[in-house]
Design a protein that fits this description.
Helix 6 (185-200) packs across helix 8. The protein folds into 2 domains: 5-167, 3-Layer(aba) Sandwich (Rossmann fold); 185-289, K homology (KH) domain (GMP Synthetase, Chain A, domain 3), CATH 3.30.300.20. Helices cover 34% and strands 22% of the residues. The protein contains 9 helices and 9 strands. It is globular. It is α/β, with parallel strands linked by helices.
């Protein structure tokens, strides 16, 4: 019997390049929320993939960007912190476009890191001249591997997992083999609610939203009761999330509850409230209360 391999792998890249979709694709289950809005991921989220003789602990990081507020500063600090104490870095870029200033900035940061870096050119299912695009990105630096993949279709994902496994050092099993994330259910519930807000709203509303789960308890009738507050920064945003006659809030709740029932394998009663906390993204106390700002 061979030795067991395990290690930590950071997924980094500019906002909206498909890092969370890639994480979910490698794990084979949804552990990170996904939307077409940039900066969807705000925390470092660990996904765990256990296979025959190996365990990979993935760290999905907030996209590195030029921060506009304290929340943004925290997100960038969290992403950069993820580059230390890992065994491998997956530098993910959006292959639909040639390298931009943000990609070059990240490549310079990664050039100073001793950890091996895989360059993953994602969304290749939507690229005409794949060879030329891979060459453009390869020129950004020295990489241990350069791969064209599609997290959405799964193209190249199995090969990627195999290449990661080969790079892992010998090590212990950090998590039970049936565990796919180290995040508590309260966090997952809050993120699923926030994901539905991101899908259903636009303009300034998505980034002004924070979700706090205030109660999660099993009731005598077998239902799991979840109560949560959706916080926004302005009264106008509150009106948008509630919607005409409460229609938007009902739809957010319906979609979130459906997905939670699938993930938690139980019937759920979900109760949502919308509250205003003015300028919460710039207030340290509020950031800490919502689980941001602490390394």
């Amino acid at each position: 019997m061979g030795s067991f391999r395990s290690g930590f792998v950071a997924i980094v890249g500019r906002p909206n390049v498909g890092k969370s979709t890639l994480l979910n694709s490698m794990i084979g289950r949804k552990v990170a929320i996904v939307s077409d809005k940039p900066q969807t991921t705000r925390n470092r989220i660990s996904g765990v993939l256990t296979g025959e003789g190996y365990q990979i602990v993935f760290v999905d990081t907030p996209g590195i960007h030029r921060p506009q507020h304290k929340l943004g500063e925290y997100m960038v600090r969290a992403a950069r912190a993820a580059l230390t104490d890992v065994d491998l870095i997956l530098f993910t870029v959006d292959g639909r476009f040639p390298p931009g200033g943000g990609d070059r900035y990240l490549a310079r940061i990664l050039a100073d890191v001793s950890t091996p870096v895989f360059l993953l050119v994602n969304k290749m299912d939507a690229v005409r001249d794949a060879g030329a695009r891979l060459e453009e990105y390869s020129a950004l630096g020295e990489f241990a591997e350069v791969m064209g993949i599609s997290a959405l279709t799964g193209e190249g994902v199995r090969e990627l997992v195999e290449k990661i496994r080969e790079r892992l050092p010998e090590g212990p099993m950090y998590y039970p083999e049936d565990e796919v994330t180290d995040q508590p259910e309260v966090f997952i519930a809050a993120e699923l609610i926030r994901e539905k807000v991101l899908h259903l709203t636009r303009e300034e509303v998505p980034h002004a939203v924070a979700v706090e789960v205030t109660a999660m308890e099993e009731r005598d009738d077998g239902l799991l009761y979840i109560g949560a507050n959706i916080y926004v920064e302005r009264d106008s945003q509150k009106g948008i999330i509630i919607g005409k006659g409460g229609s938007m809030l009902r739809e957010i709740g319906r979609l979130a509850r459906q997905e939670m029932e699938g993930l938690f394998a139980t019937r759920i009663f979900l109760e949502l409230w919308v509250k205003v906390k003015k300028d919460w993204r710039n207030r340290e106390g509020n950031l800490h209360a919502f689980g941001y700002g602490r390394e």
